[in-house]
Specification:
The structure holds 2 protein chains of 2 kinds. By secondary structure, chain A is mainly β. Chain A has no helices and 11 strands. The model of chain B has no long low-confidence stretch (mean pLDDT 97). Classes of the chains: A mainly beta, B mainly beta.
Chain lengths: 124, 109
C-alpha cells in the first residue's frame, strides 16, 4: 500500500521560510516522479511543482506563483520528498499535498497517490 | 496565464447520469494533455479517478468514465450513487507544467 505522509507545516510570518517533508512508502521512490499540490482554504487545487526521478534527470518545474521562492528536492536514500519555501507570502497559506506520478509507456504526466496534507499558515 | 474551466456545479438524481467537462483556454483538449480526473470530499485529500483521458485506476468504480467531447476532456458518472456527491477536478499537462481545473461541485439530489 502506497503511503505519503507530509510534515513540517505550521504558522510562519510573511517573508519567513518553512521546509515541508513527505515520507513515502509502498512504492519504489527512487523511480517516482513527485509533485506538490496546494489548496488554499475554501479554494481549488493548485499544482506547485514537480521533480523527476534521478534516472530521468531529476529536474524540477514550478508554477509561476512560486518560481524562484520554492525548491523541491528529494533524498532517495530516505524515501523523502522536500519542499523548501522561502520568502513566504500570505497567499501561500494552504494545505500542501505530496503526490506521486503514475508512469505509463507514454510518460509520467499522471498523478495517482496523495498524502493527507499539511497546513501552512502565513500570517503576521 | 492558462485557465482550465469546469462547470461550477451540477445536480443529478440518484441512478442518473451526469457529464462534467474540462476546457483549456489555449484551445481544444487532446489526449496529449493527459487529462486526469480527481474526486475530493469535504475534509479529505483528493483521490485519483481517471488518467490519460480514459483509463481507470484499479480502485475507480466502473460507473466513472473519461473521454474527449467537443474539444474538452469529459468525466461521465453513470448510475450515480449518493456517495458520488463531491467536488471533481480535472488536471491538464502543458509540457512541464500542470494546471488544475476550477472544479465542479456535484450534488446528488
Amino acid at each position: 500500500e502506497v503511503q505519503l505522509v507530509e510534515s513540517g507545516g505550521g504558522l510562519e510570518k510573511p517573508g519567513g521560510s518553512l521546509r515541508l517533508s513527505c515520507a513515502a512508502s509502498g512504492l519504489t521512490f527512487s523511480n517516482a516522479w513527485m509533485s506538490w499540490v496546494r489548496q488554499a482554504p475554501g479554494m481549488g487545487l493548485e499544482w506547485v511543482g514537480r521533480i523527476k526521478s534521478k534516472t530521468d534527470g531529476g529536474t524540477t518545474d514550478y508554477a509561476a506563483p512560486v518560481k524562484g521562492r520554492f525548491t523541491i528536492s528529494r533524498d532517495d536514500s530516505k524515501n523523502t520528498l522536500y519542499l523548501q519555501m522561502n520568502s513566504l507570502k500570505t497567499e501561500d497559506t494552504a494545505v500542501y499535498y505530496c503526490t506521486s506520478h503514475y508512469c505509463t509507456g507514454a510518460g509520467c504526466a499522471n498523478i495517482d497517490y496523495w498524502g493527507q496534507g499539511t497546513l501552512v499558515t502565513v500570517s503576521s | 496565464q492558462t485557465v482550465v474551466t469546469q462547470e461550477p456545479s451540477l445536480t443529478v438524481s440518484p441512478g442518473g447520469t451526469v457529464t462534467l467537462t474540462c476546457a483549456s483556454s489555449t484551445g481544444a483538449v487532446t489526449s496529449g494533455y493527459y487529462p486526469n480526473w480527481f474526486q475530493q470530499k469535504p475534509g479529505q485529500a483528493p483521490r485519483a479517478l481517471i488518467y490519460s483521458t480514459i483509463n481507470k485506476h484499479s480502485w475507480t468504480p466502473a460507473r466513472f468514465s473519461g473521454s474527449l467531447l467537443g474539444g474538452k476532456a469529459a468525466l461521465t458518472l453513470s448510475g450515480v450513487q449518493p456517495e458520488d456527491e463531491a467536488e471533481y477536478y480535472c488536471l491538464l499537462y502543458y509540457g512541464g507544467a500542470y494546471v488544475f481545473g476550477t472544479g465542479t461541485k456535484v450534488t446528488v439530489l
